[in-house]
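Homework help board

Subject: predicted structure for assignment chain

Our instructor gave us this sequence and asked us to write out the predicted structure in C-alpha cell form, then describe one feature. I got the C-alpha cells but I'm not sure how to describe them. Can anyone check?
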Amino acid sequence: MRYTLLGILAILLWSSTTALARSLTEQLGTTTTAAAVFLLSGAIGCTHLVLSRKLGRLRRLPRAYLLGSGGLFVLYMVCLYLAIGLAATRVQVIGVGIINYLWPGLTLVFSVPLLGKRARAWLLPGALMAFAGGALAMAQGGSFSWSAFADGLMAGSVPYLLALVAALCWALYSNLSRRWGGKAEGTAVPVFLLASGLVWLALRCLFAEAPQWTLRSAAELLYMATLPTLAAYTFWEAAMRRGNMVLVAALSYFIPLVSTAISCVYLGVRPGANLWTACLLVVAGAVVCKLSLRERAPAPAAIDKSGGAAKNGQ
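My C-alpha cell output:
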C-alpha cells in the first residue's frame, strides 16, 4: 500500500510539470532549463545514495533494467522538454501536455503484451478514444474542425510528435521497469536523472542561449529539481515496481485535467472548449482501458508439509 500511495503522490506532483517547465524555458532557454533541472536533481539523488550507502545496490540491478529502462527514461526527458520548449505559444504547450499525458492509457495497453495482463474487447476503443483527445488538442484552443486540426498539425508538428514519442517512451518505461527490475533492491532513478542532465548539458554546448536568472527562475528551478523531478520519478518507480501498477496507472488519468488547470492558471491561458474536451477524451479513454483489463485468477494455495494451506503473497 505504501508504494501505491507514493505513486499517487507522484501523479499530483507531475501535474505542475508542464506549467513550470514552460515558465523556466521562457526565462532560461530550453537546453539550459533541462540541463539545470536534471543535473541538480541527479546530483542530489546520487549524493543521497552515497551518504546512505545504497550506491552498491546498483550493481545488483539487472542490466536490462539499467540499460533498457535507463535509455527510455533519458529519451523521455529529452522529448518532453524539447516539446515544451519548441511549442510556439503557451496554448500549444497545453496541447503538447495533453498529448504527453496519453501515457496513462498507453501504460495500460502495453501491460497486456509486456506483463501478460488480460484485456477485454474494448481495450482498443479506449485507446482510440484517448488518441482522439490528443488529436483534438492540436486545434490549439479554437473550435474543432478538420481544417483547424490540419493547420495545428502543420504549424507545430514537431512539438506534437515529440510529445507523442514521450508518451510512448514513458508507457514502455513503466511496464518494462516492472518486468526487468521487479522487486530487486535499489533504484537507479537518480542515475537516470544525472544521465539525462549530462545529455542535456551536451546539447546545451551546441546551442547559444542567454538565460535570465532571477529570484523567480531560481525558485522554480529548485522546485522542479526536487519535487516533480527527483521525488516524483523516484516515487513512480517504486509504485511501478512494487505497488499496484494497474491501480496507480489508472488513477494517473486525472493528470490531464489537473495539469491543464494548473497550466492555464500559472501561464495565464484561457483554454477553449476543445482543450477541455480533449482532456475528457484522454481521461475517458484511460478509464475504458482500465475497465477492459481483467485480473488473473489467483493461483490455488499451496499445501505445506504440515498439511496447512500456505498463503499466496501479493
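Reply (TA_rk): Your C-alpha cells look well-formed. For the description, you could write something like this. Confidence is low (pLDDT under 50) at residues 297-314. That's the kind of observation they're looking for.
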